Write a sequence for this structure.
């Protein structure tokens, strides 16, 4: 019988000497880096640095990026984030006028971002209030976060031109019994109706409710805003303005300005809330100016432990 001879190559020798060479390597790696997997995920799925852009705060297990002015949000992770976009609020009208409508309120709780891709942020300005003399308020400007656009709030109607503007939320009408401005579906509500019974204007619409109509001897209050994950309210409507001798109206929670009676200017809405400006009053001869709308805001948050 022929004898079979096997020639050992260098590779075979290594295998015979170290039959479990792969296991040896794995064991050595485990000894050197026992938490090797964790070492490459120090910050979890949201990265070790989080992201850049805006004012950064860490609260309750979340990192917040708050934009009070335009800028860029750049993540160092690829995942979903929660976003709130609020546009600038509309200005209140002048003289027995409607309150300004709140800026559009647009949340997205699952907006996908990608590592290193900067996203443009634009903060909308609040609309100017109607000047002395009975003019309407101006619309607020849009706010933008990449593909999300919140619509600026509608300006309030006035004594000489009672018809308000549509917007994220619509402005309240002046005292001539016309309809309030229309709100944008999914972002806000309609403005309230003014009346010539007491020469007073309706409230501007808010993110959470329509502006109130004038009722009896009560001016129209602004519609309420909505509360976001940070616990704050945004996008409240401005109160309507009225004639002499009546109580001031109330701005909606979320920055809406107070509407005034008599020859008193409406209050300016709170900055970076998207609130509508308060309507100006009328004393039987002179028309007071409306208040300006509040500027908008953009907030981004995601789970994060520093």
């Amino acid at each position: 019988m022929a004898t079979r001879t096997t020639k050992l190559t260098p590779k075979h020798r290594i295998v015979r000497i170290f039959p479990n060479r792969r296991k040896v390597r794995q064991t050595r790696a485990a000894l050197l880096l026992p938490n090797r997997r964790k070492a490459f995920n120090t910050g979890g799925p949201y990265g070790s640095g989080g992201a850049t852009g805006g004012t950064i705060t860490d609260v309750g297990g979340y990192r917040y990026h708050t934009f009070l002015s335009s800028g860029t949000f750049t993540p160092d992770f690829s995942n979903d984030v929660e976003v709130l976009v609020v546009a600038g609020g509309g200005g209140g009208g002048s003289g027995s006028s409607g309150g300004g409508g709140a800026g559009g309120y647009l949340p997205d709780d699952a907006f996908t971002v990608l590592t290193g891709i900067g996203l443009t942020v634009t903060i909308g300005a609040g609309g100017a209030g109607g000047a002395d003399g009975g003019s309407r308020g101006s619309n607020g400007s849009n706010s933008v976060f990449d593909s999300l656009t919140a619509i600026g709030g509608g300006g309030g109607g006035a004594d000489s031109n009672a018809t308000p503007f549509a917007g994220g939320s619509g402005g309240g009408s002046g005292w001539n019994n016309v309809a309030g401005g229309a709100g944008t579906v999914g972002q806000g509500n309609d403005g309230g109706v003014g009346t010539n019974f007491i020469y007073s204007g309706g409230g501007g619409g808010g993110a959470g409710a329509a502006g109130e109509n004038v009722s009896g001897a009560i001016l129209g209050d602004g519609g309420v805003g909505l509360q976001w994950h940070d616990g704050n309210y945004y996008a409240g409507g401005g109160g309507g303005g009225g004639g002499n001798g009546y109580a001031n109206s109330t701005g909606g929670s979320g920055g809406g300005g107070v509407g005034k009676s008599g020859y008193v200017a409406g209050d300016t809405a709170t900055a970076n809330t998207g609130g509508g400006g308060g309507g100006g009053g009328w004393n039987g001869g002179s028309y007071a100016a409306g208040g300006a709308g509040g500027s908008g805001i953009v907030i981004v948050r995601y789970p994060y432990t520093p």
Notes: The chain has a mean pLDDT of 87. The first strand starts at residue 51 and ends at 52.
